[in-house]
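Hey, can you fold this one?
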Amino acid sequence: MPAAVEIDRDHHLAEVREQGFTVIADVLSSDEVGALVDDLDRLHAELGTRPARNGFEGTSTLRVYNLLAHGPIWQQVPVHERVLPVVEGVLDAGCLVSSLSSITILPGESAQPIHADDQLIPLPKPHVATVCNTMWALTDFNEANGATRLVPGSHTADRSPDYGHPYESVAAEMPAGSVLVWHGSLWHGGGANATDERRIGIAMNYCAGWIRQQENQQLGLSPALVRTFSPRLQELCGYGVYHGLIGHIDRRSPADVLLAPGTDGDDPMVWDRV
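Sure. Predicted structure:
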C-alpha cells in the first residue's frame, strides 16, 4: 500500500475509534457517480421499485437490495481501494459483504428512527466491532435533503438506542462522490428530506467473517455470476475461509468446491498450520 494511502487510512481509522465515523472525500469521480445513478434509475424502472410501508425502510424511500446481482457496475463498490482498507482496519481482512443496496430518499420523507446496525447481535456492549458500514453519496448530502444523522461517540455506549426515541444528532454532510464509514455500534439514522430533490446513497455494508451476513450472498448470487467476480470480491461474498476454519466445506474453501470444482486449492485449514 502506498505511503500516502496508508497515512490516509490511519487518519480515518483514528476518527472511527474516536467518534465512531469518518468521511472519505473524492472516492468517486463525477462520471462514476453519474454512471451509478443512471444504472440505479434503470433498476428502478425495470424492477418497478416502490417505497416500503414501514417506518424503518421509509414510506417515501426507494430501496434496491442485492445490487451485486444486478450488473457488473456494482462490483467496483465493495473492493474500492480507498474504502475497503479502512473497513478492514475496523474489522479485519477476513470481513464479508453483508449487504449492498441503494437508498433513495424522496422529497417529504421523515427521519428514520435512530438505531445501531449491530443491535440485533446478542453481545453485551461495548464490544469488538462486528459490523462496519458505509454510505456512498451519489448526490450531495446535506441537512435539508436527508443526510445520515449521527450520534458521535455512541459506538462506545453500553447499550443500543431505544427505538423511536429522539436523540441529539448531527448531519453527515458531504458532497457527491464521498463515502461515510461508521462502526456498527454507532447510533444513526437516515434524515428527513425537506427539499424537492431526491437524496441518493449506496449502503455498502460489511460484517466480520464470523458474523452471519445480512443478505445471503451464497443464495442471492448464482455461482455462475460469482465466477465473473475478482478473487477478492469472491472472498468478500463468502467464498473463502475465515482464519482457516469458519466457512469450510469438507476441509476445503468454498471457492475451490463451488467456483473451481476438481481443484485441490491452496488455502490450508487451521489444522494444517499447527
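Strands lie at 21-24, 61-64, 96-105, 131-137, 149-150, 170-171, 179-183, 188-189, 199-207. Let me know if you want another pass with a different chain boundary.
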